[in-house]
Amino acid sequence: MAAQPLQNNLVHGDHRRISVDDFRTSTCGWKSEREFVDFLEVNLAQFAEEELGASYLSHVREWYLTDLKPFGANKPRIDLMVRLKDGRRIGIECKRPTGSFSDISRSISQLLSYSVIANQNNAHMDQLYLLTTQYDEVLYQVITKYELPIKVIVFSRDQRAVMA
What we know:
alpha/beta, 6-stranded mixed β-sheet, 24% strand, 29% helix, Trna Endonuclease, Chain: A, domain 1
């Protein structure tokens, strides 16, 4: 099934922008992580305006961070590399955890590793985003305690909340 556009249901001030607590038990509406990324990709222009604060220019899906042979066939890649008209490059990793804490906690080290590899290959990302379908208080506490350069948005098909 093809991803469907948002149809203007994620506008600023919309009542569907809720608190992260509402995601403790909510279902996300996607059957797979791929479907989640498909949905975001269809709606990137709107997402860029509303959450990234700039106009969308372009993107690459499954953007490889390096061409180095030591990684072999398992080269690191981020779900979406988004270029904005203001010149920023945003790395977005999407996660649809299956319920275990390790699914979401691994995403922190994954994003930090991606940032280092990208910088080593002259592919700097100005900001890292983790889009997840599941809220976890510990994730927020780790990012805050260590002042990690990761912004988290908890997402469902028609709702989202920024962890601030």
